[in-house]
Protein backbone atom coordinates (compact mmCIF):
# COMPACT_ATOMS: atom_id res chain seq x y z
CA UNK A 1 0.00 0.00 0.00
CA UNK A 2 2.88 2.32 0.88
CA UNK A 3 4.59 1.75 -2.46
CA UNK A 4 1.36 2.44 -4.30
CA UNK A 5 0.82 5.65 -2.32
CA UNK A 6 4.37 6.79 -2.97
CA UNK A 7 3.93 6.13 -6.68
CA UNK A 8 0.69 8.12 -6.80
CA UNK A 9 2.39 11.08 -5.06
CA UNK A 10 5.43 10.96 -7.32
CA UNK A 11 3.56 10.48 -10.58
CA UNK A 12 2.47 14.12 -11.10
CA UNK A 13 6.02 15.31 -10.38
CA UNK A 14 7.54 12.74 -12.74
CA UNK A 15 5.11 13.75 -15.50
CA UNK A 16 5.94 17.44 -15.01
CA UNK A 17 9.68 16.66 -15.02
CA UNK A 18 9.42 14.55 -18.19
CA UNK A 19 7.27 17.14 -19.96
CA UNK A 20 9.70 19.90 -18.96
CA UNK A 21 12.60 17.89 -20.40
CA UNK A 22 10.64 17.33 -23.60
CA UNK A 23 9.95 21.05 -23.94
CA UNK A 24 13.62 22.02 -23.70
CA UNK A 25 15.25 19.41 -25.95
CA UNK A 26 15.04 19.66 -29.74
CA UNK A 27 11.78 18.43 -31.23
CA UNK A 28 11.62 14.98 -32.84
CA UNK A 29 9.09 14.31 -35.59
CA UNK A 30 7.94 11.08 -37.25
CA UNK A 31 5.93 10.60 -40.45
CA UNK A 32 4.45 7.48 -42.11
CA UNK A 33 3.40 7.19 -45.76
CA UNK A 34 0.32 5.21 -46.67
CA UNK A 35 0.81 2.04 -48.66
CA UNK A 36 -1.14 -0.93 -47.36
CA UNK A 37 0.65 -4.14 -46.47
CA UNK A 38 4.11 -2.94 -47.64
CA UNK A 39 3.87 -0.30 -44.90
CA UNK A 40 5.19 -3.03 -42.61
CA UNK A 41 8.64 -2.12 -43.89
CA UNK A 42 8.38 1.27 -42.15
CA UNK A 43 7.75 -0.46 -38.83
CA UNK A 44 10.71 -2.80 -39.33
CA UNK A 45 12.96 0.19 -40.03
CA UNK A 46 11.67 2.13 -37.02
CA UNK A 47 12.23 -0.88 -34.79
CA UNK A 48 15.87 -1.07 -35.87
CA UNK A 49 16.44 2.65 -35.36
CA UNK A 50 15.00 2.56 -31.84
CA UNK A 51 16.91 -0.64 -31.05
CA UNK A 52 20.16 1.12 -31.88
CA UNK A 53 19.32 4.06 -29.63
CA UNK A 54 19.51 1.74 -26.62
CA UNK A 55 22.09 -0.81 -27.76
CA UNK A 56 25.19 1.34 -27.42
CA UNK A 57 27.10 2.64 -24.44
CA UNK A 58 24.75 3.89 -21.74
CA UNK A 59 21.73 2.13 -23.20
CA UNK A 60 19.67 -0.36 -21.22
CA UNK A 61 18.81 -2.59 -24.17
CA UNK A 62 15.09 -1.85 -23.97
CA UNK A 63 13.51 -0.50 -27.14
CA UNK A 64 11.76 2.76 -26.19
CA UNK A 65 8.15 3.44 -27.03
CA UNK A 66 7.87 5.76 -30.04
CA UNK A 67 5.39 7.93 -28.12
CA UNK A 68 8.15 8.61 -25.56
CA UNK A 69 10.78 9.26 -28.21
CA UNK A 70 8.89 11.53 -30.62
CA UNK A 71 6.98 14.74 -29.95
CA UNK A 72 4.69 14.44 -32.97
CA UNK A 73 3.73 11.47 -35.16
CA UNK A 74 1.57 11.59 -38.27
CA UNK A 75 0.44 9.36 -41.09
CA UNK A 76 -1.86 8.96 -44.06
CA UNK A 77 -3.93 5.90 -45.00
CA UNK A 78 -2.53 2.79 -43.36
CA UNK A 79 0.33 5.02 -42.22
CA UNK A 80 -2.31 6.86 -40.22
CA UNK A 81 -3.31 3.61 -38.53
CA UNK A 82 0.32 3.11 -37.53
CA UNK A 83 0.67 6.69 -36.27
CA UNK A 84 -2.37 6.33 -34.01
CA UNK A 85 -1.32 2.93 -32.68
CA UNK A 86 2.18 4.13 -31.83
CA UNK A 87 1.30 7.63 -30.64
CA UNK A 88 -2.22 7.80 -29.26
CA UNK A 89 -2.52 4.16 -28.15
CA UNK A 90 1.08 4.10 -26.83
CA UNK A 91 1.87 0.75 -28.40
CA UNK A 92 5.35 -0.69 -28.83
CA UNK A 93 6.69 -1.19 -32.33
CA UNK A 94 6.53 -4.97 -31.91
CA UNK A 95 2.91 -4.93 -30.76
CA UNK A 96 2.02 -2.57 -33.59
CA UNK A 97 3.60 -4.92 -36.13
CA UNK A 98 1.53 -7.83 -34.82
CA UNK A 99 -1.72 -5.86 -34.69
CA UNK A 100 -1.08 -4.37 -38.14
CA UNK A 101 -0.59 -7.81 -39.68
CA UNK A 102 -3.75 -9.17 -38.05
CA UNK A 103 -5.72 -6.08 -39.08
CA UNK A 104 -4.69 -6.22 -42.73
CA UNK A 105 -5.39 -9.94 -42.91
CA UNK A 106 -8.88 -9.28 -41.57
CA UNK A 107 -9.78 -6.46 -43.93
CA UNK A 108 -8.13 -7.78 -47.09
CA UNK A 109 -9.81 -11.19 -46.83
CA UNK A 110 -13.26 -9.59 -46.75
CA UNK A 111 -13.79 -8.77 -50.43
CA UNK A 112 -17.14 -7.44 -51.53
CA UNK A 113 -19.11 -8.46 -54.60
CA UNK A 114 -17.24 -7.43 -57.76
CA UNK A 115 -19.93 -5.02 -58.92
CA UNK A 116 -19.65 -3.00 -55.71
CA UNK A 117 -17.72 0.28 -56.04
CA UNK A 118 -15.51 -0.37 -53.01
CA UNK A 119 -13.49 -3.60 -53.03
CA UNK A 120 -13.46 -4.34 -49.30
CA UNK A 121 -15.81 -4.33 -46.32
CA UNK A 122 -15.68 -1.12 -44.31
CA UNK A 123 -17.61 -2.90 -41.54
CA UNK A 124 -14.84 -5.47 -41.11
CA UNK A 125 -12.28 -2.66 -40.91
CA UNK A 126 -14.33 -0.74 -38.35
CA UNK A 127 -14.86 -3.75 -36.12
CA UNK A 128 -11.18 -4.65 -36.20
CA UNK A 129 -9.92 -1.18 -35.32
CA UNK A 130 -12.49 -0.77 -32.54
CA UNK A 131 -11.26 -4.03 -31.01
CA UNK A 132 -7.67 -2.75 -31.05
CA UNK A 133 -8.71 0.53 -29.43
CA UNK A 134 -10.87 -1.17 -26.80
CA UNK A 135 -8.11 -3.55 -25.77
CA UNK A 136 -5.57 -0.75 -25.41
CA UNK A 137 -8.04 1.38 -23.46
CA UNK A 138 -8.36 -1.50 -21.00
CA UNK A 139 -4.61 -2.04 -20.84
CA UNK A 140 -3.99 1.66 -20.19
CA UNK A 141 -6.83 2.00 -17.70
CA UNK A 142 -8.58 4.77 -19.60
CA UNK A 143 -11.91 5.99 -18.15
CA UNK A 144 -13.87 4.69 -21.13
CA UNK A 145 -12.87 1.15 -20.15
CA UNK A 146 -14.01 1.42 -16.53
CA UNK A 147 -16.74 -0.87 -15.21
CA UNK A 148 -19.90 1.19 -14.74
CA UNK A 149 -22.89 0.11 -12.68
CA UNK A 150 -21.44 -3.38 -12.47
CA UNK A 151 -21.25 -3.77 -16.25
CA UNK A 152 -18.11 -4.31 -18.29
CA UNK A 153 -18.40 -3.15 -21.88
CA UNK A 154 -17.05 -5.30 -24.68
CA UNK A 155 -13.78 -4.26 -26.26
CA UNK A 156 -15.58 -3.15 -29.39
CA UNK A 157 -18.06 -1.02 -27.42
CA UNK A 158 -15.18 0.60 -25.55
CA UNK A 159 -13.47 1.21 -28.87
CA UNK A 160 -16.55 3.10 -30.09
CA UNK A 161 -16.24 5.67 -27.31
CA UNK A 162 -12.61 6.73 -26.99
CA UNK A 163 -11.96 10.19 -28.41
CA UNK A 164 -8.90 11.36 -30.30
CA UNK A 165 -8.58 14.22 -27.83
CA UNK A 166 -9.13 12.12 -24.74
CA UNK A 167 -6.79 13.07 -21.89
CA UNK A 168 -4.23 10.57 -20.59
CA UNK A 169 -3.03 12.20 -17.37
CA UNK A 170 -0.33 9.67 -16.58
CA UNK A 171 1.81 10.34 -19.64
CA UNK A 172 3.15 13.43 -21.37
CA UNK A 173 1.33 13.80 -24.65
CA UNK A 174 2.84 12.77 -27.96
CA UNK A 175 0.87 14.80 -30.49
CA UNK A 176 -0.65 12.70 -33.27
CA UNK A 177 -2.57 13.56 -36.41
CA UNK A 178 -3.78 11.78 -39.53
CA UNK A 179 -4.75 13.13 -42.94
CA UNK A 180 -8.02 12.64 -44.80
CA UNK A 181 -10.01 14.45 -47.47
CA UNK A 182 -13.39 16.05 -46.80
CA UNK A 183 -15.41 15.35 -49.92
CA UNK A 184 -18.11 17.79 -48.76
CA UNK A 185 -15.62 20.68 -48.92
CA UNK A 186 -14.41 20.33 -52.51
CA UNK A 187 -11.92 17.67 -51.46
CA UNK A 188 -10.13 19.89 -48.94
CA UNK A 189 -7.60 18.12 -46.77
CA UNK A 190 -8.64 17.50 -43.18
CA UNK A 191 -6.12 17.04 -40.41
CA UNK A 192 -7.58 15.00 -37.54
CA UNK A 193 -5.66 15.67 -34.34
CA UNK A 194 -5.25 14.41 -30.79
CA UNK A 195 -4.45 17.91 -29.51
CA UNK A 196 -6.54 21.02 -28.89
CA UNK A 197 -6.47 24.46 -30.48
CA UNK A 198 -8.15 23.76 -33.81
CA UNK A 199 -11.75 23.92 -34.95
CA UNK A 200 -12.70 20.45 -36.11
CA UNK A 201 -15.23 17.72 -35.29
CA UNK A 202 -14.66 15.79 -32.07
CA UNK A 203 -13.60 12.51 -33.67
CA UNK A 204 -13.42 9.21 -31.91
CA UNK A 205 -10.22 7.27 -32.55
CA UNK A 206 -11.97 4.71 -34.73
CA UNK A 207 -13.50 7.48 -36.87
CA UNK A 208 -10.07 9.01 -37.40
CA UNK A 209 -8.63 5.65 -38.40
CA UNK A 210 -11.53 5.03 -40.79
CA UNK A 211 -11.35 8.51 -42.29
CA UNK A 212 -7.67 8.30 -43.18
CA UNK A 213 -8.02 4.81 -44.73
CA UNK A 214 -11.27 5.46 -46.61
CA UNK A 215 -9.80 5.36 -50.10
CA UNK A 216 -13.03 5.32 -52.15
CA UNK A 217 -11.74 2.60 -54.47
CA UNK A 218 -11.04 0.27 -51.54
CA UNK A 219 -13.58 1.27 -48.87
CA UNK A 220 -16.75 3.31 -48.80
CA UNK A 221 -16.37 6.85 -47.39
CA UNK A 222 -16.83 7.58 -43.69
CA UNK A 223 -19.93 9.62 -42.85
CA UNK A 224 -19.59 11.64 -39.63
CA UNK A 225 -22.93 12.91 -38.36
CA UNK A 226 -23.01 16.20 -36.54
CA UNK A 227 -25.13 19.34 -36.45
CA UNK A 228 -27.24 20.03 -39.51
CA UNK A 229 -24.78 18.58 -42.00
CA UNK A 230 -23.07 15.24 -42.33
CA UNK A 231 -19.40 15.23 -43.28
CA UNK A 232 -18.08 12.66 -45.74
CA UNK A 233 -14.40 11.70 -45.44
CA UNK A 234 -12.24 9.77 -47.86
CA UNK A 235 -8.65 8.61 -47.43
CA UNK A 236 -5.91 11.20 -47.64
CA UNK A 237 -3.63 9.32 -50.03
CA UNK A 238 -4.36 11.33 -53.17
CA UNK A 239 -1.86 14.19 -53.05
CA UNK A 240 -0.94 13.64 -49.41
CA UNK A 241 0.31 10.07 -49.18
CA UNK A 242 3.66 11.37 -47.95
CA UNK A 243 2.47 13.75 -45.21
CA UNK A 244 5.87 15.24 -44.40
CA UNK A 245 4.83 18.77 -45.47
CA UNK A 246 1.77 18.55 -43.22
CA UNK A 247 3.97 17.35 -40.37
CA UNK A 248 6.35 20.30 -40.66
CA UNK A 249 3.48 22.80 -40.92
CA UNK A 250 1.76 21.35 -37.84
CA UNK A 251 5.00 21.25 -35.86
CA UNK A 252 5.67 24.89 -36.73
CA UNK A 253 2.32 25.80 -35.14
CA UNK A 254 2.60 23.51 -32.12
CA UNK A 255 6.26 24.05 -31.19
CA UNK A 256 6.95 27.72 -32.01
CA UNK A 257 10.50 28.83 -31.28
CA UNK A 258 11.71 25.29 -30.59
CA UNK A 259 14.72 23.78 -32.34
CA UNK A 260 14.14 20.54 -34.26
CA UNK A 261 16.65 17.73 -33.83
CA UNK A 262 15.20 14.92 -35.96
CA UNK A 263 12.65 14.55 -38.73
CA UNK A 264 12.10 10.93 -39.70
CA UNK A 265 10.04 10.11 -42.80
CA UNK A 266 9.27 6.44 -43.42
CA UNK A 267 7.94 5.18 -46.75
CA UNK A 268 6.07 2.01 -47.65
CA UNK A 269 8.45 0.85 -50.38
CA UNK A 270 9.14 2.26 -53.82
CA UNK A 271 7.06 0.64 -56.53
CA UNK A 272 7.28 1.40 -60.24
CA UNK A 273 4.12 -0.63 -60.85
CA UNK A 274 1.25 -0.98 -58.41
CA UNK A 275 -0.08 -4.54 -58.10
CA UNK A 276 -3.57 -5.50 -56.99
CA UNK A 277 -4.89 -8.98 -56.42
CA UNK A 278 -7.38 -10.38 -58.97
CA UNK A 279 -10.92 -9.19 -58.32
CA UNK A 280 -12.97 -11.64 -60.34
CA UNK A 281 -15.53 -9.74 -62.38
CA UNK A 282 -14.38 -6.27 -61.30
CA UNK A 283 -14.98 -3.87 -64.20
CA UNK A 284 -11.82 -3.12 -66.17
CA UNK A 285 -12.32 0.63 -65.93
CA UNK A 286 -12.61 0.42 -62.15
CA UNK A 287 -9.46 -1.70 -61.91
CA UNK A 288 -7.62 0.72 -64.19
CA UNK A 289 -8.73 3.60 -61.99
CA UNK A 290 -7.35 1.87 -58.90
CA UNK A 291 -4.00 1.17 -60.57
CA UNK A 292 -3.64 4.69 -61.99
CA UNK A 293 -4.46 6.25 -58.64
CA UNK A 294 -1.84 4.26 -56.78
CA UNK A 295 0.79 4.88 -59.46
CA UNK A 296 0.22 8.62 -58.97
CA UNK A 297 0.48 8.13 -55.22
CA UNK A 298 3.82 6.30 -55.49
CA UNK A 299 5.25 9.10 -57.65
CA UNK A 300 3.95 11.82 -55.33
CA UNK A 301 5.67 10.32 -52.28
CA UNK A 302 9.19 10.60 -53.69
CA UNK A 303 8.53 13.95 -55.39
CA UNK A 304 7.46 15.35 -52.02
CA UNK A 305 10.58 13.91 -50.40
CA UNK A 306 12.84 15.55 -52.97
CA UNK A 307 11.16 18.92 -52.52
CA UNK A 308 11.31 18.85 -48.73
CA UNK A 309 14.85 17.48 -48.68
CA UNK A 310 16.16 20.67 -50.28
CA UNK A 311 15.36 22.56 -47.07
CA UNK A 312 17.97 20.58 -45.17
CA UNK A 313 21.04 20.88 -47.40
CA UNK A 314 22.78 22.99 -44.73
CA UNK A 315 21.61 20.68 -41.91
CA UNK A 316 22.43 17.16 -43.12
CA UNK A 317 21.70 15.40 -39.81
CA UNK A 318 18.12 16.58 -39.30
CA UNK A 319 15.94 15.06 -42.01
CA UNK A 320 16.05 11.36 -42.86
CA UNK A 321 13.94 9.46 -45.36
CA UNK A 322 13.97 5.65 -45.43
CA UNK A 323 12.05 3.82 -48.14
CA UNK A 324 12.88 0.31 -49.38
CA UNK A 325 13.70 0.66 -53.07
CA UNK A 326 14.34 -2.93 -54.18
CA UNK A 327 12.14 -6.02 -54.03
CA UNK A 328 8.84 -4.36 -53.15
CA UNK A 329 7.71 -3.84 -56.75
CA UNK A 330 5.80 -7.12 -56.93
CA UNK A 331 4.15 -6.88 -53.50
CA UNK A 332 0.64 -5.50 -53.72
CA UNK A 333 -1.05 -3.23 -51.24
CA UNK A 334 -3.30 -6.16 -50.27
CA UNK A 335 -0.69 -8.97 -50.09
CA UNK A 336 -0.87 -9.57 -46.34
CA UNK A 337 0.46 -13.14 -46.70
CA UNK A 338 3.80 -11.85 -48.07
CA UNK A 339 4.97 -10.23 -44.85
CA UNK A 340 8.00 -12.55 -44.77
CA UNK A 341 9.14 -11.15 -48.10
CA UNK A 342 8.67 -7.60 -46.84
CA UNK A 343 10.84 -8.37 -43.83
CA UNK A 344 13.52 -9.93 -46.05
CA UNK A 345 13.60 -7.00 -48.50
CA UNK A 346 13.65 -4.50 -45.64
CA UNK A 347 16.50 -6.35 -43.95
CA UNK A 348 18.52 -6.37 -47.17
CA UNK A 349 17.87 -2.64 -47.57
CA UNK A 350 19.05 -1.84 -44.04
CA UNK A 351 22.23 -3.91 -44.48
CA UNK A 352 23.39 -1.79 -47.40
CA UNK A 353 26.41 0.23 -46.31
CA UNK A 354 24.97 3.62 -47.28
CA UNK A 355 21.70 2.88 -45.46
CA UNK A 356 23.60 1.63 -42.40
CA UNK A 357 25.38 4.97 -42.26
CA UNK A 358 22.12 6.90 -42.55
CA UNK A 359 20.47 4.84 -39.80
CA UNK A 360 23.42 5.46 -37.47
CA UNK A 361 23.26 9.18 -38.23
CA UNK A 362 19.55 9.24 -37.40
CA UNK A 363 20.28 7.47 -34.11
CA UNK A 364 22.92 10.10 -33.30
CA UNK A 365 20.30 12.76 -33.98
CA UNK A 366 17.90 11.10 -31.54
CA UNK A 367 20.69 11.22 -28.98
CA UNK A 368 21.23 14.92 -29.66
CA UNK A 369 24.59 14.56 -31.43
CA UNK A 370 23.85 17.11 -34.13
CA UNK A 371 23.33 20.81 -34.73
CA UNK A 372 19.59 21.54 -34.57
CA UNK A 373 17.78 23.98 -36.82
CA UNK A 374 14.70 26.04 -36.05
CA UNK A 375 11.30 24.50 -36.55
CA UNK A 376 10.41 27.51 -38.72
CA UNK A 377 13.30 26.76 -41.06
CA UNK A 378 12.23 23.13 -41.26
CA UNK A 379 8.73 24.28 -42.19
CA UNK A 380 10.16 26.24 -45.11
CA UNK A 381 10.57 29.72 -43.62
CA UNK A 382 14.13 30.40 -44.68
CA UNK A 383 14.42 33.69 -42.87
CA UNK A 384 14.17 32.05 -39.45
CA UNK A 385 17.31 30.76 -37.75
CA UNK A 386 18.64 29.78 -34.36
CA UNK A 387 21.05 32.11 -32.62
TrEMBL record:
<dbReference type="GO" id="GO:0016020">
    <property type="term" value="C:membrane"/>
</dbReference>
<dbReference type="GO" id="GO:0016042">
    <property type="term" value="P:lipid catabolic process"/>
</dbReference>
<dbReference type="InterPro" id="IPR016035">
    <property type="entry name" value="Acyl_Trfase/lysoPLipase"/>
</dbReference>
<protein>
    <recommendedName>
        <fullName>PNPLA domain-containing protein</fullName>
    </recommendedName>
</protein>
<dbReference type="GO" id="GO:0047499">
    <property type="term" value="F:calcium-independent phospholipase A2 activity"/>
</dbReference>
<keyword id="KW-0378">Hydrolase</keyword>
<dbReference type="GO" id="GO:0046486">
    <property type="term" value="P:glycerolipid metabolic process"/>
</dbReference>
<feature type="domain" description="PNPLA">
    <location>
        <begin position="30"/>
        <end position="248"/>
    </location>
</feature>
<dbReference type="Pfam" id="PF01734">
    <property type="entry name" value="Patatin"/>
</dbReference>
<keyword id="KW-0442">Lipid degradation</keyword>
<dbReference type="GO" id="GO:0019369">
    <property type="term" value="P:arachidonate metabolic process"/>
</dbReference>
<dbReference type="InterPro" id="IPR002641">
    <property type="entry name" value="PNPLA_dom"/>
</dbReference>
<feature type="short sequence motif" description="GXGXXG">
    <location>
        <begin position="34"/>
        <end position="39"/>
    </location>
</feature>
<keyword id="KW-0443">Lipid metabolism</keyword>
Amino acid sequence: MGDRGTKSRLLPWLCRYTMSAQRTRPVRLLSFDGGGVPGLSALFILKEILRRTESGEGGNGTIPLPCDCFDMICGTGTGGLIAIMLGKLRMSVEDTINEYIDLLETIFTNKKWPWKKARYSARALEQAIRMIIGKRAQDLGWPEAAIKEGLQLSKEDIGRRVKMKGNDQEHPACKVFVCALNSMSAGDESVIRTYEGHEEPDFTIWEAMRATTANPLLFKPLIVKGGKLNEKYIGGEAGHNNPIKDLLAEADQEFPGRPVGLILSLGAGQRDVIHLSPAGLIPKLQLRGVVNLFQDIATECEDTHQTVGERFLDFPNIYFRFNVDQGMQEIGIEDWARRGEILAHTGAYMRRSEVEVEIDRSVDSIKGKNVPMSISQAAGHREASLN
